[in-house]
Design brief:
alpha/beta, Rossmann fold, DNA polymerase, domain 1, 6-stranded parallel sheet, 9 helices, 8 strands, about 45% helix
Amino acid sequence: MIKAVLFDLDGTLVNSLEDLAVSTNYALTRFGFPTFETYKYKYFVGDGMPKLIERVLPEDKRDKDTLNTVLKVFMDHYGEHFADHTRVYPGIERLLKDIKKLKLKTAVISNKSQKPAEAVVGKLFGTECFDIICGKREDYPAKPDPALTLKVVSELGVHTGECVLAGDSGMDMAAAKNAGIIGIGVLWGFRTEDELKNNGASYIVDSPEKITEIIMRLNRRG
């Protein structure tokens, strides 16, 4: 019986790519580093903001001081512009309403830092939409390590076998698999179907309503 739905944030609930790209390019420009077209950020994002900055910097400029300096400029800019272009994907609001009708618990688990994750969710969904909003924490490794996912499951008061995790990347699917959770890969995000399959997705969907269908089907079996 499925009792909780866990969601990745960027690329799953919201399309945030342009704002992430704009803020990163702003920081790179401030220090005279080359910038990138927005579509290339599909493979720069996903492992947390420090890793994003590391990936976009020239290889010979990835020392700790440079990373931290550029990261700070990025964070300051993104903190003011995180919702300039970021939008909820079509069908997500209906999905969340359906999940609420089914009386399922919900959580967001993101490799985005906690404060920006809360800001994006609060701005686009409100503060009461999810039971837990969990961004990257200093004392926990990022996904695909399952530790933080397992902590959220425990805080929701459910078992791993009672959860599904929806995400757009192989990292999300690997985190679900590593935690013993059913992984649902979504095709409207930043990564490819092959990546989702290769990292252990139990299901792959091309529209949010199919997540509801999977949950209802699983619960009928249960």
